[in-house]
Specification:
This protein is of the alpha+beta class. The protein is built from ten helices and seven strands. It has one domain: Beta Polymerase, domain 2, CATH 3.30.460.10.
């Protein structure tokens, strides 16, 4: 058989698979050797620029900030250096979730938040084991997301965010072609009880829990109107502006998926309490120019307290490998509604939008470990291009 015939046969086999290509259960020596040979400082290299080995990479879901009572007692930190807490599914976003009101998916390529994608959100338990190795033959010769740039390509230090953006968008387009969503099995709802709900992830709410969740969504929408009025007052006095305000309310399907995931883990939990604990069901993003970012964030945090909002938690993620920005959780004193505020610059907000779909795939239980690993690489590469405002990484966390 000729090399051309062999390649054709392999490509046909891949095209005929209903889902993503199968892979060995453990990483191969060839892959590990290739990773070890990457130059220090590369997004996929296990070594930092100074030659020291990087700490284990946290999953994107761990960036969602849980409320204090969401973390099980004695749980270890999900991210090194963070307070002890629960594992994914309680992501401090992210990413950030950018879901339009009454809509399941973000705008053009919106990321959870309008406040992550994400940094979309999540009670999605997507702990990938990363036990599979990449099938290097399946897409022979085709560049992958997060793959080292071609020789002579300018590095992050010589490329501005604007210059890097077209290349990053092209990488995502290639990823979508390699991992088309339509290959995923369609969710079967034919046997579900009347009044129940089943999401694209396969998670289910029985008719009773679905009804309680709908009622909670109605209360949330009512509280959101008053919170938005106060946030607009903050904006008028702020150096920043509210970005993605149309996405301030999480879509019902997205919220129900979070509730269903939590009830799967804690079946005896009170549904109303679970709905109320989804801290990014209402979310906002305040965006500042780089020069005004650090002072603007600190000033607006105090301004929001004066509006009657209680600061529950603030997480500084400017040093995070896969997401840049500050995420905070608040509670409205009048309605007791929890909500989220993210603080971004134009590049970090645009990066959040760009990686929203990647984040959503990472948190989807149907995503294979092979694709998830590539998605993490992509999020790291995007984040490595974002300029960090002076003093942003030093803004203190709370509590």
């Amino acid at each position: 058989m000729t090399r051309i015939e062999d390649r054709t046969e392999r490509m046909s086999a891949v095209a005929g698979q209903h889902d993503r290509p199968s892979v060995p259960e453990t990483p191969g020596d060839d892959l590990m050797q290739r990773i070890e040979r990457l130059p220090p400082g590369h997004p996929s290299s296990p070594y930092d620029q100074d030659g020291t080995r990087k700490p284990p990479v946290a999953r994107s879901a761990d960036r969602e900030l849980p409320l204090p009572d969401e973390r099980p007692a004695g749980a270890e930190p999900a991210v090194p250096g963070s307070p002890p807490g629960e594992e994914p599914g309680k992501r401090f976003s992210k990413t950030p979730d950018l879901t339009p009101i009454d809509s399941e998916s973000p705008g053009t390529d919106g990321r959870e938040p309008a406040g992550q994608d994400a940094v979309a959100d999540q009670v999605a338990e997507t702990g990938t084991d990363h036990n599979e190795t990449l099938d290097h033959n399946a897409y022979d010769g085709e560049p992958r997301v997060g793959e080292p740039p071609s020789p002579g390509a300018p590095g992050p230090e010589s490329r501005s965010w604007t210059d890097a953006l077209p290349h990053l968008k092209e990488q995502w387009e290639r990823h979508e072609k390699r991992w088309p969503q339509e290959q995923r099995a369609e969710v079967d709802r034919s046997q579900d009880e009347p009044g129940s709900w089943r999401g694209d992830s396969g998670r289910v709410l029985c008719a009773r829990d679905n009804a309680y969740t709908d009622a909670g969504c109605d209360r949330m929408a009512k509280a959101e109107a008053q919170i938005t009025t106060h946030m607009e007052e903050t904006e008028r006095a702020s150096a920043g502006e509210l970005a993605g305000k149309d996405f301030r309310l999480k879509g019902r399907d997205r919220l129900k998926d979070k509730v269903a995931a939590e009830l799967t883990t804690n079946p005896d939990a009170d549904v109303d309490e679970v709905v109320a604990s989804v801290h990014d069901s209402v979310r906002y993003t305040l965006q500042y120019d780089d020069a005004e970012y650090t002072e603007g964030v600190q000033t607006d945090v105090e301004r929001m307290k004066d509006q009657g909002f209680e600061l529950v938690r603030l997480k500084n993620l400017w040093n995070d490998a896969e997401y840049k920005g500050i995420n905070s959780q608040w509670r409205d004193g009048g309605s007791s509604q929890a909500f989220e505020v993210q603080f971004h610059t134009p590049p970090s907000f645009e990066a959040k939008q760009l990686t929203h779909k990647a984040y959503e795939r990472v948190r989807n239980p149907q995503t294979t470990d092979v694709e998830a690993r590539e998605l993490h690489d992509y999020q790291r590469e995007v984040s490595s291009k974002i300029p960090v405002p002076v003093g942003a990484a030093d803004i203190p966390e709370y509590p």
